[in-house]
Amino acid sequence: MEAIIIDGKKVADEFRARLAERVEKLAQRGVIPGLTAVLVGDDPASASYVRSKKKAAAEIGINSSVVELPAGTPQSELDSIIDGLNADDRVHGYIVQLPLPKQLNVEKTIQRILPVKDVDCFHPENVGLMTLGRPRFLPATPGGIIELLRAYNIQTSGAEVVILGRSDIVGRPLSIMLAQKAVMGNATVTVCHTRTRDWVRHTRNADILISAVGRANTVTAEMVKPGATVIDVGMNRIDDPSAKKGYRLVGDVDFAGVSQVAGAITPVPGGVGLMTVAMLLANTVTAAELRGQ
Ligand SMILES: NC(=O)c1ccc[n+]([C@@H]2O[C@H](COP(=O)([O-])OP(=O)(O)OC[C@H]3O[C@@H](n4cnc5c(N)ncnc54)[C@H](OP(=O)(O)O)[C@@H]3O)[C@@H](O)[C@H]2O)c1
């Protein structure tokens, strides 16, 4: 049987409609949420992510702007831009788009962001609050995945969840959130990485299998338990001379094969990515609401 396709666009549209109502309530109090993205260098993928975040923000009435800096920007200059954003009342939240050029220190940069404006939820204070089950913001991609599961009534409580990848932005926070004693938590979570001995032994047990590795065709049909939910976080560019841009975007999952075995599956594009953007907007609205309290 073919898997149900989890429609990220539909879920993101509904989620953003609910957010637009919160933006409207803020507008009645004279508050327009402000989101800024800092983009250092000219990485085409980063520039494209920032453009889509800006467009999505504008669509629900969030004021958004981009600070574009040259690839050679020194740390001192980035620091003073961050200090300016921390002090600017029109900016409720901002992100520094990663990855950063080599001369810039990611940890120092993130530490400098005022935690109440850290809408990517990367600052240690926000990661700590989330880990303790008292989140101020939710990390965007994990939060987006949980919204997709919720929208399709996929039970996490008691489920065996296997996450491939343990990065700071996806695998690790998601493993914490899904294992928490909470609605959309209570799962038994296994995290696999480069030192895991036998992935397939784990993946075949998974009721929910989430891949955040960054390599096409990492998950194939024989790795998946029949009827499992498969969430594909990967965004990999592969050469395709027939495509207008010369490449196309694929996930980590062999979609054609896995969709014959899985019960539900996210496509790439059209799955997790759209929810990541929606969650960033949600954090920005939350930041504006918290300021007003
Ligand atoms: N859709 C979205 O909104 C969204 C958001 C964020 C990221 N992404 C995409 O998701 C993917 C992962 O991103 P990320 O930032 O989490 O990646 P990352 O920081 O590169 O982490 C990749 C993880 O996968 C593990 N891994 C890589 N190759 C492996 C292999 N051959 N065998 C076993 N484990 C392996 C690594 O293990 P070690 O820890 O042992 O090195 C690491 O934990 C990328 O394609 C990225 O573009 C998508």
Helical content stands at 25-40%
Strand content: 15-25%
Q: Which CATH C-level class of the largest domain is it? A: Alpha Beta
What's the rounded overall pLDDT mean? 97
CATH architecture call of the largest domain: 3-Layer(aba) Sandwich
**Count of all domains:** 2
- Terminal CA distance reads 50 Å
Bound molecules: NADP nicotinamide-adenine-dinucleotide phosphate
Counting helices, strands and paired strands, the structural category is: alpha/beta
Fourth CATH level, the homologous superfamily of the largest domain = NAD(P)-binding Rossmann-like Domain
List the uncertain runs: none
Principal-axis shape: globular
Succession of helices and strands: EHEHEHEHHHEHEHEEEEHEH
- CATH fold-level topology of the largest domain: Rossmann fold
Q: What does it look like?
A:
With 293 residues, the protein is an alpha/beta fold. The chain has two domains: 30-114, 3-Layer(aba) Sandwich (Rossmann fold), CATH 3.40.50; 140-273, Rossmann fold. It has ten helices and eleven strands. It has a six-stranded parallel beta sheet. A three-stranded parallel beta sheet has the order 3-2-4. β5 (160-164), α7 (171-179) and β6 form a beta-alpha-beta unit. The chain is globular, with a radius of gyration of 19 Å. The termini are far apart. The structure holds NADP nicotinamide-adenine-dinucleotide phosphate. NADP nicotinamide-adenine-dinucleotide phosphate is lined by residues 141, 165-167, 169-171, 193-195, 212-215, 233-236, 272-273, 276.
